[in-house]
Design a protein that fits this description.
The structure is a homodimer of 330-residue chains. Chain A is α/β, with parallel strands linked by helices. Helix content of chain A is 51%, strand content 14%.
Chain lengths: 330, 330
């Protein structure tokens, strides 16, 4: 029931994802009347989904602490419980990110050795996508937390993007070792002392992140959130300016159809729906966040991310990694 | 001597600024041989400039502490001294920002009541520019520092953009009062307790900054630097994609001349050279930073900012404001 166009895009997204992957099975949590309306028109065989009625839904502006106390019969709460009870292998939600994190942490708990789950996401770059975390779950972070993010982000990148040995960097205001907070320098030292050292390229500035100079970029949730929204805001600003250019001037109007055709590959590549599906990594269960404004294509992309990380056993891999690191430290 | 194309763009920028403002007078600090080469071809009357030879120049990658110890005969050091000694009313530099801040703080000292000078800059928005500070001088900030930034940013915006009662906001990950660090909440409380209260609109997210929802946005130097570079990086990414779109596809090539004509107003508006000239506010003297990559047009814009703030007596106004606030507190 979460996101701007739920449950419509959720169900249409599921149908779209199913078309490319017949092994998928769905449980839809939410208002059964509304769900029934959309499954009828979506081309989704009856055998591949069930509906679990949820009388409540958590609003996008509900505070996480309120959602935790009052949202027991919400679609989000019930869906997360189904993961805990192993009736589902993972959850995909377009709802309130803060509530999703707090409910998931409460119901699923964190993986052994992980203190703080983090929100991951994709940043489009000229070459491919870059994994950025944390995008807002942890406002203040210790060096240990940032180190955990590096480890989890690396696993997420490896699995969702198929990269072997993805490069890892820490977001900073300069690339020199002396830059930034002491916390960042300590986090860098921890990564250098671990078996991630060979993949670690040190500090990176935000403009170089957008140039695609690292596969995984680690930062605290405050900075990550500011950076992500700055990129999204600048992107929307440019898109608006381009649209205006081709609808206002005489030269723009004249060439608009062909100009927009020429710009289509760029618009497709930068379409947020193509980069949809961030993982709340570090939880004892797979929780994927879809952008609240995504369409069916975007929701299908988030479902694909969920299927990838479930099949790859991402959480077992993170847990093993943590175990190896404890062994090293011992 | 600072920036990518010095002293050429500096001298050409001065000539350009002089053309629109015949009251300007210049002292060029730097390599006198190189300066002589460019003043000859720039249309700048002999009577409006003098040259002060500086045997050294601070490189863009010199660490500020090194610049402070070793750069005594550098163009930057000598130029800042001329402001201290009242031979110049202000300095405009395209050089190493960190060195400029450290040298200026050492030579000029801060204004009474100001603990930390900050770097201000302009962010382009759909309507007008927004003043953002700090852009990187202070990696960690107390509530008091952020409060000082609000006060100085307000004065800078009022003077450079001619806005009466500009609106002020604090950058955060959400607009609700409960969001972000404790430091931000305390800074907000300080602003609400001051006579800036009527202009204070609370917390703002980075995407809303880009939408132009506040005239002055306050943040610590770490976050401000990450945000500024994210906007610049995304802008460059989009520009590159647009250029590629009109040089690669058949439809793009066909309409390229008219399409680029239609996009020209946007490119002009987003041209970083049009938004050039950040002030290092809080110093006992006017110090303006030009972007290192700016052209003559950009450098002229930075000179215009310098002339504006000098004529308006910005530092006297900040000092009076600080004095009033101390009176209130007493």
């Amino acid at each position: 029931m979460g996101g701007d166009h739920a449950p419509k895009v959720v169900i249409q997204g599921a149908a779209r994802a199913y078309k490319n992957d017949h092994q998928l099975r769905f449980i839809f949590f939410g208002d059964e009347v509304k769900i029934a309306r959309y499954v009828k028109t979506a081309s989704l065989p009856d055998a591949v989904y069930t509906v679990h009625h949820a009388p409540d839904a958590i609003a996008s502006d509900t505070r996480p602490s309120v959602a935790l106390r009052q949202g027991k019969q919400s679609s989000m709460h019930l869906a997360i419980q189904s993961v805990r009870d192993q009736r589902a292998d993972g959850i995909v939600s377009g709802g309130n990110t803060g509530a999703l994190m707090v409910l998931a942490k409460h119901i699923l708990k964190t993986l052994p050795g992980i203190a703080r789950p983090a929100i991951t996401g994709f940043i489009p770059t000229p070459t491919t996508d870059t994994v950025l975390l944390d995008l807002g779950a942890n406002i203040e972070c210790s060096p240990r937390h940032l180190f955990e993010f590096a480890l989890m982000g690396e696993a997420f990148c490896r699995i969702t993007m198929g990269k072997t040995n993805p490069s890892i960097a820490i977001l900073n205001v300069g690339s020199e070792d002396t830059k930034g907070h002491e916390t960042l320098r300590q986090a860098a030292a921890s990564i250098r002392d671990s078996d991630l050292n060979d993949q670690f390229i040190g500090f990176i500035e935000s403009n170089h992140v957008i140039e695609g100079k690292a596969d995984v970029v680690v930062t605290d949730g405050f900075t990550g959130n500011v950076m992500l929204k700055a990129i999204e805001g600048t992107g929307r600003f440019f898109s608006g300016e381009i649209r205006a250019a081709f609808s206002q001037s005489w030269s723009g109007k004249l060439v608009a159809p062909l100009a927009l055709l020429a710009l289509r590959p760029m618009r497709q590549r930068l379409d947020p729906n193509a980069h949809n599906g961030g993982m709340l990594v570090g939880l004892n269960g797979v929780v994927i966040k879809s952008h609240g404004g995504s369409n069916a294509k975007g929701f299908a992309a988030a479902i694909r991310v969920a299927a990838n990380v479930i099949r790859s056993g991402i959480n077992e891999r993170i847990t093993e990694h943590m175990h190896d690191l404890s062994m090293e430290a011992a």
